[in-house]
Predict the 3D structure of the following.
Amino acid sequence: MAWYDTHKRDLPWRSEGRRDPYKVWVSEIMLQQTRVEAVKSYYTNWMEHFPDIPTLASAKEEDVMRQWQGLGYYSRARNLHTAVREVMETYGGKVPDTREGICKLKGIGEYTAGAILSMAYGKRETAVDGNVLRVFARIYKIEDNILSAKVKKEITALVEARQDALRPGDFNEALMDLGATVCIPGQPRCEVCPLADVCQSKREGKEMEIPLRITNKEVPVEPVTVFVVRTHGNGSTVSVLRKLSEPTGVRQWPMAGQDTADPSICYLLHRRPAKGLLAGMWEFPNCVGEAGSGKAALKGMLAEIGVEIKKVSRPVQQIKHVFSHKIWQMVVCEAVAEETDELPSEWRWVTAEEIADYNLAGPHNKILGMIHQ
């Protein structure tokens, strides 16, 4: 605790003493599977738009998703939005202060519940994340698989036994900070660790071997073909696509282009189903399949809604997008079609200027960066 008081990270969601449970809640949901540095600006922007539970509860889903755009794992935002509405309707706008009550809210698990209860309500509750698992596995030289339920249960019991009775929230955050800045994966910074003298792994020279992480999960790679379908505009035949600017981590391809998009050109967008991966978000037409078979499948799919593809370019870009459970290897082509008057409700023609108002799914937002604005 003394180490934490001196070395704790300066983060926008932290404050002295008891904290606002809503702000703890938002920060912890954002931090799930996302780096701290990436979350900082999103959190600040979020609080400018939705400073409290009533404001978020009354917001439209489109506005909520727009502020979340870029953070990924969009179900987190939907669950948060649903849960704050339940807090308004069932609990009078006050976040429950018991583990039983708070865990009933959509999207809140054991870790998030412990974080809110300890940091905002001063409850002697644990919040065991990956950092805490790593710290305790090293201190107690736990050599079993850290991802197993048995080890997680064992470490949770150890954390519970050593929780600080007076400052439980700070205790949980101290462990998180220690794991994030000192007891890091790979090569821990034992020379500056306040617990080095009591660390059993350090004593036996096993600090770089522990924790043991065993996973048999193999993430499948899924080929996806994408069409950026546009109308002729004023008759231009020049590509409207350009190279993505660095740094993107995306392979660059030489391609033709123009400096300014024709304002009369429209682009075809599709809204994904309300449930499932990237639910309810907008995207460019796409289908699973390599470029050859994917082109044919996309032409057929679009023909069914009355959009006849006149011309398709060769692949002009390759984009790799990583989800937690799969990888999309996306091949992007440019296609030209005539604008149609009637489309199903989940399809829409929009101008380049209008696209900014649509909540594009993460991988398709990368493609948007290829279009000349």
